[in-house]
User: Which sequence fits this backbone?
């Protein structure tokens, strides 16, 4: 057992580890790459060789009134969900940061658990409940459900930022004459601004991408992912790739913006 | 003519049934510089936080100008605090930090800026007005914290360990600066510190605390001359403390037995002592003299020099006595020049009976 | 006068806390907890003439729990979710180990960033892409025929569903395993190497036991995601055989029998809670030894 054979063995191990990792990453990213690639393919049937570059499918997507309505609905929902769920998530994070009370564990469980319930169950639960109170099929119904599942993401993001707020900062504000509301407005919210902006983008992305709950409750007011699901049940269509690429680009833009904000705040603290 | 600005009256505070402060009563005069001093966990910071309203007392009252404020919200009191951590608002410029208190008092933006700039000028940090706190050094942050607390022109300023986060060389200059500021402003400072050199150098009166209770209140010289109890004598660390047993006591003085023989003191005890009582005898280190031989006076203890500790201009001779007790004598370098001493020398330590006093065990 | 003042400060503080705490509580109570409780209640309702009737009957429970189609769907969903979790955990581990232990921090950050991307890419669209790869005349089969092998049938079989489940769970499992491995004390690993413990033995006897909790959680999350997924078994498995999620969706979308769907939902929730409980007990329980 010399060092030399050990290092050769190690090189081989490292090589096979890298090989396996490449296969796994290929498996994960092949569908994403092929989605983007075939959305620009002129051929209706996705097969190699590549039939040439074309924007036909994008044109068709934008010409389809149902897809357009879906897109508008998705945008409207995300536009409402982002600020609402961020506000609710912020307040829940602040409660966790600031108050001690009996039943806090239950309160925090309620504020953080929704994303762990399978969406298919959430969908059925929302449908039966919202049907009873006349919300099902309305955009507000979708917004209400999406806020339920996205607020916890906002809560976690903002809670992490609040953990960096020193224990004396708020007390210093009170000490200088700022009441709790003024402290919230002038100290806590500005301090959390990067996390708040990041969570606006992340919650928008979560809502924009959500298909299962919306599929159950949207009724006539289909969102874009619900339309995709409907297209999926039909025949092969590169339009799905085009929509997927559009949604992907939008979501990634939002996530990158959120990341950049979080990074800038980290750099700023030094 | 003194006027009481702040009164703590029977103040107690417990956290989860753990007592942090119990029955603290202090009366602070207008314009005074008071230091709250003691080891960590003695309740000094909790007392300060109660004055600011950041902790609510379990019992007792806090009166400012005779009015009970102990149930007032912190933002309704005018008791700005200089935090140990500085607690500057990290996302605001230096100027906006200083303006914060003024803004809460409804001052318009233009006046705020003028006022803030005055204070920045006064604290010598006008050049940093646009900087963010993280771009400043520790000493600069400290000045911003002071300017921010003083901008609203309070009558009472609270300081929590204001020097502890500074580099050693900055500590002394900031100490001088605080004293100067206190004299110029003529307002009341209440300062928490664990360092007696800081407290004694800056304060008009020092409050020594331990385990949540006040051990002694007095002017630095007074405390230094006479500690009220063994804790204070030990905490100040400048005295020899000997376990003794009273042999007899009358109007002329007290004689007591100890491991190093019979000791006497002329100082009339404040409280009469009982024959047979076990007490501690306190002898300040700088009152212990070293001679070469016995002279027949009282309180003479023969011994051998075990060590010489040099601390700047003063030298402490550590004398091991025959009774196995160690005595410390603080000498000036001039003393040493006239009477050279070396480790191993056989000497006699002695002190004037009038300079020693008894405290309870 | 004085006591009024006390009261007003305390009341102010309480009002502030209540106003801050209320929005999240109210929203999640009304739009999350109430629907779930309503779902529980719904399991006891009945359907007459295609209309829901408030009732208290165990008929839905007995009907579903005794139905052969439910039992086989339950068994199938449970086993394929377990298989998914096992394959995902085993396949992900070398990748997580490579990223956590063998790559530079910069490469680690970049790969972890890449692994976040799938979370923001529409799952239905990714599944659709997989359909294209695995369709009878798709890219995979073209390639197989191209090199002289016989084509394979994946679509509309349990293997197809498995492909979908892995598409869904792999990024999550790798990320969770990286977090678990990053928590392993590096000094412990160094010490093992110094004691001439081979790299492979170090992985088996030091790294895996140290990261056990995180590794079990990654397995549990894979199970949870696969167990609840509708898209993979529907569009890649061809609902052949159906899973519980498909059963639920069918009962609601075409059967219009919400109480029965609610019963299925309850069995899923119970199963997930029991699995999480068991797995966490396994993860934490053995560390006491």
Assistant:
């Amino acid at each position: 057992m010399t060092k030399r054979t050990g290092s050769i063995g190690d090189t081989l191990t490292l090589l096979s580890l890298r090989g396996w990792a490449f296969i796994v990453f290929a498996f994960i990213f092949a569908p994403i790459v092929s989605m983007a690639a075939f959305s620009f393919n002129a051929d209706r049937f996705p097969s190699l060789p590549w039939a040439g570059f074309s924007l036909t499918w994008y044109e068709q997507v934008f010409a389809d009134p149902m897809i357009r309505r879906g897109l508008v609905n998705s945008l409207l929902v995300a536009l409402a969900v982002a600020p609402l769920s961020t506000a609710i998530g912020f307040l829940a994070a602040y409660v966790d940061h600031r108050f001690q009370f009996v039943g806090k564990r239950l309160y925090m469980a309620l504020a953080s658990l929704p994303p762990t319930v399978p969406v298919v169950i959430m969908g059925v639960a929302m449908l039966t409940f919202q049907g009873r109170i006349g919300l099902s099929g309305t955009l507000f119904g979708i917004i209400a459900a999406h806020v339920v599942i996205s607020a916890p993401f906002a809560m976690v993001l903002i809670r992490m930022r609040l953990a960096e707020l020193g224990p004396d900062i708020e007390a210093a504000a009170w000490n200088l004459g700022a009441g709790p509301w003024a402290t919230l407005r002038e100290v806590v919210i500005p301090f959390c601004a990067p996390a708040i902006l990041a969570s606006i983008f992340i919650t928008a992305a979560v809502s924009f991408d959500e298909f299962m709950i919306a599929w159950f409750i949207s009724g006539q007011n289909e969102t874009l992912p619900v339309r995709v699901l409907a297209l999926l049940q039909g025949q092969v269509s590169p339009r799905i790739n085009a929509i997927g690429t559009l949604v992907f680009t939008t979501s990634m833009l939002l996530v990158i913006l959120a990341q950049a904000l979080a990074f800038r705040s980290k750099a700023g603290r030094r | 003519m003194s006027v009481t600005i702040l009164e703590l009256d029977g103040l107690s505070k417990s956290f989860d049934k753990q007592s942090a402060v119990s029955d603290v009563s202090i009366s602070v005069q207008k314009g005074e510089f008071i230091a709250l001093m003691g080891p960590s966990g003695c309740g000094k910071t909790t007392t300060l936080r109660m004055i600011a309203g950041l902790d609510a007392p379990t019992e007792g009252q806090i009166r400012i100008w005779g009015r009970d404020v102990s149930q007032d919200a912190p933002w309704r009191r005018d008791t700005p605090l200089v935090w140990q951590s500085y607690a500057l608002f990290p996302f605001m410029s230096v100027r906006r930090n200083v303006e914060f208190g003024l803004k809460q008092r409804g001052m318009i933006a233009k006046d705020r800026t003028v006022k803030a700039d005055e204070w920045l000028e006064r604290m010598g940090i006008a050049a940093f007005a646009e900087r963010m706190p993280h771009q400043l050094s520790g000493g600069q942050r400290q000045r911003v914290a002071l300017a921010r607390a003083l901008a609203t022109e309070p009558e009472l300023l609270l300081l929590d360990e204001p020097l502890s986060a500074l580099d050693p060389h900055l500590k002394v200059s900031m100490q001088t600066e605080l004293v100067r500021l206190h004299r110029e402003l003529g307002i009341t400072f209440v300062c928490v510190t664990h360092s007696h050199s800081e407290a004694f150098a800056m304060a008009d009166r020092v409050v020594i605390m331990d385990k949540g209770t006040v051990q002694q209140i007095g002017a630095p010289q007074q405390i230094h001359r006479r500690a009220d109890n063994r804790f204070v004598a030990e905490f100040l660390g400048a005295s020899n403390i000997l376990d003794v047993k009273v042999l007899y006591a009358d109007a002329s003085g007290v004689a007591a037995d100890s491991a190093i023989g019979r000791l006497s003191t002329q100082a009339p005890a404040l409280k009469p002592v009982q024959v047979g009582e076990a007490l501690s005898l306190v002898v300040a280190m700088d009152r212990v003299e070293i001679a070469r031989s016995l002279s027949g006076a009282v309180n003479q203890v023969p011994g051998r020099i075990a060590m010489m500790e040099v601390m700047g201009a003063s030298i402490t001779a550590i004398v091991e006595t025959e009774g196995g007790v160690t005595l410390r004598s603080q000498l000036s370098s001039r003393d040493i020049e006239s009477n050279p001493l070396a480790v191993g020398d056989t000497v006699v330590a002695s002190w004037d009976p009038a300079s020693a006093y008894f405290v309870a065990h | 006068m004085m006591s009024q003042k006390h009261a007003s400060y305390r009341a102010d503080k309480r009002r502030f806390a209540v106003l801050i705490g209320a929005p999240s509580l109210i929203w999640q109570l009304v739009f999350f907890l109430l629907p779930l409780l309503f779902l529980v209640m719904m399991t006891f309702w009945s359907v007459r003439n295609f209309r829901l009737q408030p009732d208290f009957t165990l008929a839905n429970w007995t009907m579903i729990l005794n139905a052969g189609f439910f039992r086989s769907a339950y068994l199938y969903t449970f086993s394929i979710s377990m298989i998914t979790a096992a394959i995902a955990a085993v396949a992900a581990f070398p990748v997580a180990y490579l990223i956590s232990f063998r790559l530079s921090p910069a490469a680690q950050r970049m790969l972890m960033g890449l692994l976040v991307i799938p979370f923001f890419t529409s799952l239905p669209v990714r599944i659709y892409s997989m359909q294209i790869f695995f369709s009878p005349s798709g890219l995979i089969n073209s390639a197989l025929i191209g090199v002289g092998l016989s084509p394979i049938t994946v679509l509309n079989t349990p293997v197809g569903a498995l492909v979908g489940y892995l598409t869904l769970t792999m990024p999550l499992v790798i990320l969770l395993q990286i977090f678990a491995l990053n928590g392993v004390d590096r000094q412990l690993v160094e010490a093992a190497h110094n004691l001439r413990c081979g790299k492979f033995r170090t992985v088996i006897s030091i790294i895996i036991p140290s990261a056990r909790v995180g590794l079990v959680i990654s397995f549990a999350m894979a199970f949870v995601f696969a167990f609840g997924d509708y898209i993979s078994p529907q569009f890649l498995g061809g609902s052949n055989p159906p899973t519980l999620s498909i059963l639920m969706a069918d009962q609601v979308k075409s059967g219009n029998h919400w109480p029965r769907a609610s019963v299925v939902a309850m069995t899923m929730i119970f199963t997930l809670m029991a699995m999480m409980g068991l797995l966490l007990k396994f993860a934490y329980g053995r560390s006491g030894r």
Q: What stands out?
A: Chain A has one domain: 60-269.
